[in-house]
Amino acid sequence: METEQREPVRSTAMMQSFWNVQRHLVRAAHQTAQENGLSLPQFHSLMTIAPRRPITQKELAAHTHLPKSTLSQSIEGLVQSGWVIRETNPDNRREVVLNLSDHGRQFVDAIKRQEAGMQQRLEQVLDQIDPAAFEQMLKTHEQIADGLKDILSPGNGGCADD
């Protein structure tokens, strides 16, 4: 009987913990985006493109989980601002490839260095966590994600590309 009561409590506690962290991460991202004249989707797109460049628009959509119309508007704004270069893939003319411009790389680097920005604030928090505990946390998160991915059927509340 005790096991039956404990399991849902553990899953509820884990979900609430993840939601709480996610809520604060989104608030920090939104604040950093606003301070840099970006919408949240633009900020999310820039920070996703930066370490993966070049990246196809399809890959960006899979990483960001943004609706197609939101992603298109986000990319268009980033292209118009000169931070992102949008090109057609010469090997597949139907594919759009995105890359940061030199100006975009400088902009992303500046955002990452901002003392009051999301990256620096998160680093300050993570610096307080024991490195071994941090590595274990990442492994645990991966184990949870893999376990959920294995038990969830495609098309039920998520993207099959996750």
Automatic annotation (TrEMBL):
SUPFAM superfamilies: Winged helix' DNA-binding domain. Keywords: DNA-binding, Transcription, Transcription regulation. Residues 11-146 form the HTH marR-type domain. InterPro entries: HTH_MarR-typ, Tscrpt_reg_MarR-type_CS, WH-like_DNA-bd_sf, WH_DNA-bd_sf. SMART domains: HTH_MARR. Coiled coil: none annotated. It comes from the Bacteria. This is MarR family transcriptional regulator. It comes from Exiguobacterium undae.
